[in-house]
Design a protein that fits this description.
The protein is of the alpha+beta class and 219 residues long. Strand 3 and strand 4 form a beta hairpin. The chain is globular. The strands form three sheets. Strands 2, 3, 4, 5, 8, 9, 10 and 11 form an eight-stranded antiparallel sheet that branches. A two-stranded antiparallel ribbon has the order 1-12. A two-stranded antiparallel sheet has the order 6-7.
């Protein structure tokens, strides 16, 4: 699988900031400087929305970002977590293999598998079995993360099923899978970006996606 990096969808941006600048403003600035459009659930979703941290390359260029919808995810097994309803939409800029902007290396291509990997790792970040001892969490997370990476590299495999969902009103094929922890899907938007999504407590079958026209309204 070709991907930007094995970085979770919720990882913090690699940015040095002045204390006087609010973190929310810095996150918004990153979204505003992106060369590609951002996607979220369409207007059928009427609940709360929020910007989540960006993923950037070593040269600071924006690679992907996520829009949260509904409840803010907490670790499964914590009080009330199983009653949560949320979906997170990950947008990944489509790009070929190319040299980094600072000339220090090569950035890998991004594909639908990149979106699937980021969505899968994002779901894992807020999921782990409640019966698991805290001391074993890291081992479990490493094992599940490797499994998620392998699954994202085999989108035509038996773990995935086909699902058609509207993107800007146009039906688009997605790869979809469920687990006891939630669901993950990934596909490509007509505008030249890849879309991943993950969630729990909300059915993926009735979702639709649309390009965000005013990202500042999410801040």
């Amino acid at each position: 699988m070709e991907t930007t990096s094995r970085v979770g969808a919720q990882d913090a941006p690699d940015t040095v900031t002045a204390e006087a600048v609010p973190a929310a403003r810095l996150t918004l600035d990153g979204y505003l400087r992106s060369p590609f459009p951002w996607y979220a659930l369409d207007e059928a979703f009427t609940g709360p929305r929020r910007l989540m941290p960006l993923g950037t390359a070593a040269d600071g260029s924006v690679q992907h970002g996520s829009i949260g919808h509904g409840d803010e995810p907490v670790v499964r097994g914590d009080s009330g977590a199983d009653k949560q309803r949320f979906a997170v939409v990950v947008t990944v800029g489509s790009s070929p293999v190319r040299r980094s902007g600072d000339g220090t290396g090569v950035l890998e291509a991004t594909t639908v598998s990149s979106a699937a990997w980021l969505a899968g790792s994002g779901l894992l970040a807020c999921t782990w079995p409640p019966q698991l001892d805290h001391t074993l969490r890291d081992d479990w997370l490493d094992q599940q993360t490797e499994t998620a990476f392998e699954l994202a590299d085999d989108l035509e495999g038996p773990a995935w099923s086909a699902l058609s969902l509207p993107v800007d009103g146009v039906p688009v094929p997605f790869h979809y899978r469920e687990s006891e922890f939630g669901w993950v899907l990934a596909g490509s938007a007509p505008g030249g970006v890849h879309i991943g999504a993950y969630g729990r407590g909300m059915s993926a079958y009735g979702l639709g996606f649309s390009e965000i026209k005013d990202i500042e309204s999410y801040a």
